[in-house]
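Aim 2 progress update. The chain analyzed this quarter is reproduced below.
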Amino acid sequence: MAPSPRCAPIAGGVVVAPRKLSEAGSRVMCAAPSQAGSGEPGRERYVRVFEACDEDKKGYLSREDFKVAVVMLFGYKPSKVEVDSVMASVQQKNSGVLLEEFLKLMSTKKAAQLHHSEIRQIFTAFDMQYRGFLTLEDFKRAFNSIAPKLPERIIVEAFREVDQDSDGHVSFKEFESAMNYGQNEVSQLHFA
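Predicted structure tokens:
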């Protein structure tokens, strides 16, 4: 039996997603609109996706509806753990994810996505030789361009602190960990 597609106008285009992701198998059959340059503010876009996924006008998104919404907004099928976490947090109150909860979740997810992207851009700017890791020389070069009067001993201390496994290289994971140090993690519960 062929999946019954549903179409909804999103950001001036048409997004087609399967009624149930399980019908689509592991392939995601969705043309996810790009987040950047869509011209549609986040909240309005999230509301449109919510309404498109709440086909029966129940006022909430079921587990399957939520999965389709994430695919439509972010272009990937959420993991079972991610969906279980979201559904467990809302199941006590009602049958699914209400609009206001959905808006909060999607805003948080988008903020986390942007934060990760910014960290990746900074890492790439430091990694001028595109090796996938940073050396002490990369750190010195980057810090000298940003803060030329910073003493070299401070740069060396910073490098040693970030180089958690002391191998003389700072991986993206180590760099990201250092950049996130001391900040409240953005919704690790819902979007691991």
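The first helix runs from residue 42 to 53. Helices lie at 42-53, 63-74, 80-91, 99-126, 136-146, 152-162, 172-180. These observations will guide the mutagenesis experiments scheduled for the next reporting period.
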